[in-house]
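Anyone able to model this chain together with adenosine-5'-triphosphate?
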Amino acid sequence: MSAAIITADHVSKWYGQVIGLNDVSVTIPAGITGLLGPNGAGKSTFMKLITGQLKPSKGAMTVLGGSIWNNPAAYTRIGFCPEQDAFYERMTGLEWVSALVRLNGYSSTEARHAALGALEAVDLVPAADKKIGAYSKGMRQRVKLAQALVHDPDLLILDEPLTGMDPLMRRRTIRIIREWARDGRSVLVSSHILHEVEAMTSNVLLINNGRILAEGDVHDIRGLIDHHPHTVHIRAERPRELARECLSYAYVRSLRFEGDALVVETDAPDTFYTQVTNLAAAETFGRIEEVTSPDDNLAAVFGYLVK
Ligand SMILES: Nc1ncnc2c1ncn2[C@@H]1O[C@H](COP(=O)(O)OP(=O)(O)OP(=O)(O)O)[C@@H](O)[C@H]1O
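re: yes, here you go
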C-alpha cells in the first residue's frame, strides 16, 4: 500500500442546518482514486475541504503530509478543476491559463510557456487564441483541466471533469488523466458514472448523503451496480437510424424519445457505452453529440446498497 495522500479524520461540514459531509474518516492512497456518488452526495464539499477552500466544521484534513486549511504553501502543490465555470469570457484560453499560473509566482514568459504546455496536454492548442466565450462546453471543461495542471502539481482534484463532453472527447480526456498520473502523481476525480471512473482507476470511494459508504476495488461493487437497469440519453445527428440500431442489441431493454434525445434503458451499461463510443468514432449514424447518464441511475443503486 502506498503512502496516504489525503487523510480525513472524523471530518464533518455543515452549511447552517444542512450537513454536507458527515463524520468522514478515510485514507486515500497515491495514484488515481474515483469519488463516485449521486447529486448532492457531498463530492464537491469533500473536494473543497481537500483543496483548503472550506474549513471542516469538525475533524482534521491532512493533504500531502500537512494540514491544508490556511496553508498556502500546500496550495501550489494541488491543482483543482471545479465543477462550475468561472471564466473571464473575453479572455482567450491562453490568456486565462497564463494569468492564473502567474498567481503562483511565474514570470510572464514562464507563464506563457507553461500555459501552452498545459493547453497542449489537453489538446486545446488550436483554440488557444480564441475567446473562452466562444468555447463549447467540452472545450471549457478542458481549459479548466489545463488550468488545474499548468503548475505541475503533485495532486489533481477534478470535480466531474467529463461533464458536457461528447464520447470521443471523454475517451481522450480519460487518457490524458491516466497519462498524467503515470509519473507517480495523484488524482482524485469525481463522477456519478461508474463506467467513466472505472476507465481511469479501480480504486473508488462511494459517497452518499455526506458519508463514505465503501472504499476499495471497484470490481467488488460492480456486480451490484450492474444488476440495475441503466438509463442513457443520447443526442445524435441521425437519432432514428441510431434507435433502429440500438433495438437490435439484446441488452437494450427499452427505447423512447424525449424531445430530440434518444433514451435507452440497458441491462449492460458497459457494453452499451463501449458500443456507442465505437459508433461515434466510426460516425456510422453521423455525429453523436452527447451521451449522458442521469444520476438517478446511481441514486437507485445507492438506495439499494444502504438498505
Ligand atoms: N453553499 C452551500 N450552502 C448550503 N448547502 C450546501 C452548500 N453546498 C452544498 N450544500 C449541500 O450539501 C450537500 C452536499 O452537496 P455537494 O455539492 O457537496 O454534493 P455533490 O455530491 O458535489 O453534488 P453535486 O454533484 O450536485 O454538486 C447537499 O445537500 C447540498 O445541498
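Residues 76 and 104 are 7 Å apart (CA to CA).
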